[in-house]
Specification:
The chain is mainly α. The chain has a single domain, classed as Rna Polymerase Sigma Factor, Chain: A (Orthogonal Bundle). The termini are far apart.
Length: 109
């Protein structure tokens, strides 16, 4: 576990220093893609939705990597972003359901 944490911290440090950014992010992506995907799948999202939400999570991770403080645990930070993405997706679902309810069956052809 310590080796894994050291390896992840090294990748993040190199990314933040501008060293091999694409390669280092690709490694982080490959390392964490399945766990993040399962996070969404276990919460009832379809295969396609889980892939989309995982991709959205990693987009947000990429955008925020420059501000990530390495004294924090990367995995905790990553899954907080996934949780925020999950909440946003739920709000979207609720809004769509509300709109469908407002339109009612009488307005459908």
């Amino acid at each position: 576990m310590a080796d894994e944490t050291d390896n992840i911290n090294r990748l993040i440090g190199q990314w933040q220093a501008g060293i091999n950014r694409e390669e280092n992010f690709r490694r982080l992506f490959e390392w964490y893609y399945r766990p993040v995907y399962r996070f969404f799948e276990k919460r009832g999202f379809s295969v396609d939705e889980s892939h989309d939400l995982t991709q959205e999570t990693f987009i947000q991770v990429y955008k925020g990597m420059g501000t990530f403080r390495r004294e924090a645990r990367f995995e905790r930070w990553l899954f907080q972003i996934a949780a925020n993405t999950f909440q946003k997706a739920l709000r979207y679902r609720i809004a769509i359901m509300a709109l469908e309810h407002l339109s009612g069956p009488e307005s459908r052809p």
